[in-house]
Amino acid sequence: MSARTNILWAVVAVAFIVFLLSPIVLLVVFSFTSRTLTNFPIEGLTFRWWQEMVVTRQFWPSFANSLIIGSCVAVVSAAVGTLAAMGLAGMPKRRASIIMGALTLPVMLPPLVLGVSLLSFYVSLGLKLGLATVIPSHLLFAQPFVILIVHARMINFDHRVVESARDLGATPLQAFLTVTLPIIRPVVIGAALIAAALSIDDFIITFFTIGTGNTLPTLVWGMIRTGLTPSVNAIGTLILLLTIGSTVIALKLTRYRG
Amino acid sequence: MESRSNYWLVAPSALIFCALFIAPMAFFAVLSFWQVEYFELSTEPTLANYRDVFANYWRVMGFTVVVATATALLTTALGFVFSFLARFRAVEWAQALLFIVLITLFGGYLMKIYAWKTILGNEGVLNSALLALGVISSPITSLLYSPQAVVVTLMHFSLPFAVLPIYASMRGIADSEVEAARDLGAGRWPILSTVIVPRCQSGIVAAFSFVFLIVGGDYVTPLLVGGKLTMIGNLIAPQFGAQFNWPLGAAMSIVMLAAAVIVIYLFRLLVALWSRQ
């Protein structure tokens, strides 16, 4: 390959990285700049917007809701997703991929359709909208990711170690707790963190299934709709910190690359 | 492991799936044949909502399909170039490139759209930067609140969904296959078009489908960066809020999904035709 095409591809690579990351980076930068308008030139740096954020009405309850929902979704989807991934890994390949395809359908559907269908379903059943309706709704789109990630690990799992434990007299549960789980633990934790990131990041499904409360994204939505204040950048940065932070840790733990 | 117990292990996930996906979607489909009368749901089956969608909302539906098709084609092409880069041209950077794609996949949906609003505004990041650099003397006012702004924003947050399936299928192509084609005298374009694209068929179709569905159902992007532009999502969402017409909203959603299925099917045919030539 000639040097010219190499340079061309390097330019393409840089362009992609700038396109993907610059909006996110700008958001973070402008949460620290002094002017009220989010634009250039940058005149000074300040923590003003972060201070404004913590005294925003609704900020703390929204933050708490995001954390409660995120951790519940992480724990429950990790548990049911890991069980399902183990079950699927033990099935004939074709059948496993059909079941996995079906369970992944909720991720294929536009979140708006999922959100409004869940809303009308819950209300028709007479359920009161709140955290109790948001959490199961998030499970629906979080569990496929857990299943995919843990399944990718389980198909390379050496089943002989479990068989030896069983031969030595361990019950299936004992074998799972003392052999299987310690081996796959990093992957399960990583998958749980991805589920938490998806849950904390979700806006549309939360918006339709939460009723009157707020999470960080629905709070941001309210603020954007009523006018631009730079403290939106601060809350946005906080959301990114939570979601991208847990994703980075998760990718390190799982070594998952698509 | 006994095979019966494998099904029990999947049961909790399957229960969540059936109770919160199959049941609500079935109810949603039934809902689309009901009507609202005096703020009450009337369960008398009728096709009125579907007639309403085709008679009064076909323009918005058509516009949505055009925007979604354009965005899906562009994003799939970008996703293909990105995957090609990571798989064949910058193998040592592949891990890092994919890492960036994955972290942008899992975080910041609403924040990305909001960021584009601040970038493209009249007093936004782009205009202020160009003004400060002296490239332009007055702000470009047509950046925000335009179809282009909507498409760019949608492309930005759907790109990871296009990269992942295409890259996954490109990883399945061995270097030896490409080398064999080259040894047989194939040039750069023939290799791309007759070896690489056909082998990525499923990834390309998956990428297109993901992006089309994300875009077809999005209503936040047109609201924040589209100005007066209306996509079908902007009509569906209020039916479940202020407008209170669930059945009409359900019918709109189902027509949109049906349109998506048709477009995706046509795209699949196109890719299959390309690969067979």
Which range best describes the helical content of chain B: under 10%, 10-25%, 25-40%, 40-55%, 55-70% or over 70%?
over 70%
Query: Which term fits the overall shape of chain A?
Result: globular
Instruction: Report the count of strand segments of chain B.
Output: 2
Please summarize the sheet with the most strands of chain B: 2 strands, antiparallel
Terminal-residue CA separation of chain B? 46 Å
Strands of the widest sheet of chain B, in order across it, are 1-2
* CATH architecture title of chain A: Orthogonal Bundle
Taken together, the total number of domains of chain B comes to: 1
Low-confidence stretches of chain B: none
The helix/strand series of chain B, from N terminus to C terminus, equals: HEEHHHHHHHHHHHH
Q: Which architecture of chain B would the CATH scheme give at its second level?
A: Orthogonal Bundle
Count of domains of chain A: 1
| Mean model confidence by pLDDT of chain A | 91
Describe this structure in words.
Chain A has helices at residues 3-30, 48-55, 59-89, 93-108, 111-124, 131-154, 160-167, 172-201, 204-209, 216-226, 231-254. Chain A is mostly helical and 258 residues long. Chain A has one domain: MetI-like fold. The two termini of chain A are 28 Å apart. Chain B has a single domain, classed as MetI-like (MetI-like fold, Orthogonal Bundle), CATH 1.10.3720.10. Chain B has 13 helices and 2 strands, in the order αββαααααααααααα. In chain B, 45% of the residues are buried.
SSE order and pairing:
The complex is a heterodimer of chains A (258) and B (277).
Chain A: H1 3-30, H2 48-55, H3 59-89, H4 93-108, H5 111-124, H6 131-154, H7 160-167, H8 172-201, H9 204-209, H10 216-226, H11 231-254
Chain B: H1 3-31, E1 35-37, E2 40-42, H2 48-56, H3 58-89, H4 94-106, H5 109-120, H6 125-133, H7 147-170, H8 175-183, H9 188-199, H10 201-216, H11 220-225, H12 232-239, H13 246-276
Antiparallel strand pairs in B: 1-2
